[in-house]
Amino acid sequence: MEERYNPADVEPKWQAFWKDRGLFKVTEDPSKEKYYLLEMFPYPSGKIHIGHVRNYTIGDVVVRYKRMQGYNVLHPMGWDAFGMPAENAAIDNNTHPAAWTYDNIRAMRAQLKKMGFSYDWDREIATCRPEYYKWEQWLFLKMLENGMAYRKESFVNWCEKCQTVLANEQVEQDKCWRCSQPVHQKKLWQWFFKITDFAEDLLVHCDLLPGWPDKVTVMQKNWIGKSVGSELKFQVADMDEEIEVFTTRPDTIFGATFMCLAPEHPLVETLCQGTDQAAAVADFVEKVATQERSLEGLEKYEKEGVFIGRFCINPATGEKIPIYTANFVLMGYGTGAIMSVPCGDQRDFDFARKYNLEIRVVVQPQGETLDPDTMEAAYAGPGVMVNSGRFNGMDNDTAMEAITDWLAEQGRGKKAISYRLRDWGISRQRYWGAPIPVIHCPDCGVVPVPETDLPITLPEDANLLAKGGSPLPTLDYFKQTICPACGREDARRDTDTMDTFVESSWYYLRYCSPRYESGMFDPDAVKYWAPVDQYIGGVEHAVLHLLYSRYFMRCCITSAWWTLRNRSPGCSPRAWCAKRP
């Protein structure tokens, strides 16, 4: 009788054979061609499920094939152990996040080993370990030093259930990416990474990513959202304030009959002060804060606004036009202010009809005459300029550049490029994450933690608050410290922690030298193993892990330049970045 496959007998035998001979352990070997296969590492917020098995089986098949072809194969595994997924799961199971996470890591590791996946377990990492997050704290300090990290007060996406801020990329159809509860706007002091400094670089290199699926690069291009147009200045009447707007249709400026500001725009509060509209504006802003603030979410609400009691000057006509705050204007797009041209934009058209505002035709189809009193919809197509002074009779495409040049001569406009991409807000008001390495001093302000004090270790013995809020602000032994700049003893540590996507944006680099103690990674090891040859993960990572990882590659390369600059005096970090898609 033919012997049947019995996994209980066969698997332990051969897995022990592989382990004893170290078949899956690898080191850099210049005599061999390398192959780096990376699977998205799991959140240890539960146990291994069939989705993991599917992805990791695909990866294991490819890896074994490549080994048989003679490649030196890097196939690592680790744990995306910080952040809301693990913390929320721990809270739901009445367990401390540290205990929950480490127990799950042990269980998931045993499951993966039992399945015989060919990982180099000597390279295992867990992002919640101080030896890992020490280096992202170090990178934060370098970014802060070089103006790539900054702190500001702003309206942010707030999830009430998770009690934390969310980056734009973590808001899915106006809901929290983890708990699916509606997100609203809240004003807080937050830390940001200046990913917008690399917007053009990230966009251009979308077309230089070998082997990346088109749908992923298209998603990234759309998220970066480059628009070419004009930046125009509207002087506020009787005040020393200007409103800047970005528009792709400068040809329609003669038809701008009112201005609309996003409710979150910082000028809304400033301009309404001292007017009889202040109370109405405050009520409207509070109302809008509970609405879904995205392009998709806007379609759910009737277009509404409130006159803020001020006027601004149309730079083309010199006319005073009223300023409104309106719920269909988003702070996250352009400048958060739009010159409203009801003849050419349907939202503006609907708003003008509702509030009885002037509609002035400035572009109309060749051979036709549009009557603003009888128009049933805005006209956004090409045509001939009318009611536009010296530009009358010109085709509107030609007028775009001509009007911008004319306004630029007067210091009231210029050609400009705008991006949909916004700086990455990394502050989280949660416990289970990497502490942000800064100190707040009453005299010195924000003071970076000395590099010699890293890592700033998260106290894993802290008890969570009843509603899942962070205990860090209540822990004097963590919060209270001495200012390293002036010695004041009443300084305090920042009690926010970093977004979990900070950890997952550079793990693929750490795998190359996971025990390296002199930096985030060993440059020689990264030079050998990078780039990743095959990544296996869902398309939902397109504008989270993958876009952030590309940005972090630039930051990490720059940090390597900071560390090694004395060895490469003729090289700039920008030059290094330009070579890395």
Q: Your description of this structure?
A:
Helix 3 packs across helix 4 (97-114). This protein folds into 3 domains: 29-127 and 504-537, Rossmann fold (3-Layer(aba) Sandwich); 133-194 and 423-500, HUPs (Rossmann fold); 226-419, Valyl/Leucyl/Isoleucyl-tRNA synthetase, editing domain (Isoleucyl-tRNA Synthetase, domain 2, Alpha-Beta Complex), CATH 3.90.740.10. The chain has 18 helices and 26 strands. Strands 10, 11, 12, 13, 14, 15 and 18 form a 7-stranded mixed sheet that branches. With 581 residues, the chain is an alpha+beta fold.
Quick take:
Helix 3 packs across helix 4. Strands 10, 11, 12, 13, 14, 15 and 18 form a seven-stranded mixed sheet that branches. The protein has a four-stranded antiparallel sheet with strand order 6-5-9-19. A four-stranded antiparallel sheet has the order 22-21-24-23.
